[in-house]
Amino acid sequence: MMFRIINNLVEIQSKHILLSAGAHTRGHANRFLVPFASVNVYKYSFFPSGIRIWNSLPEATFMAPSLDVFKTMMDILRP
Q1: Residue 31 and residue 55 in contact, taking contact as beta carbons nearer than 8 Å
Q2: Helix (H, G, I), strand (E, B), or coil: what is residue 32?
Q3: Cα–Cα separations (whole angstroms), residue 78 to 15, 60, 66
Q4: Apex CA 31: angle with CA 28 and CA 32, to 5°?
Q5: What is the pTM of this model?
């Protein structure tokens, strides 16, 4: 779902949630800040969890040209 949201394949207003983490020496340039959560209900909800997973993906995976290619790459990464 994160791939769909980031690539505007679904109509979800995410610009107030998906904030760029900026340039870092580690990771990729398309990282997002994980929103602060003081309660576990929000901490483990979709956006904080999805952003953590997204930030850990290799660049070749999230730069996939289509959803089908992205899904295939995710299947390869899955243990």
Answers
A1: yes
A2: strand
A3: 28, 15, 18
A4: 175
A5: 0.75
Beta carbons within 10 angstroms of residue 34's beta carbon: 17
> pLDDT in tens for each of the 79 residues of the chain?
888 988 889 988 887 788 887 766 566 678 888 888 889 888 889 989 999 999 989 888 988 999 999 999 999 988 7
Contact by Cβ (8 Å): 55, 29? no
Q: Which helix (H) or strand (E) holds 4?
A: helix 2-6
Query: What are φ and ψ of residue 32, in 5° steps?
Result: -120, 150
The residue written with tokens 């398309």 in the block is 30
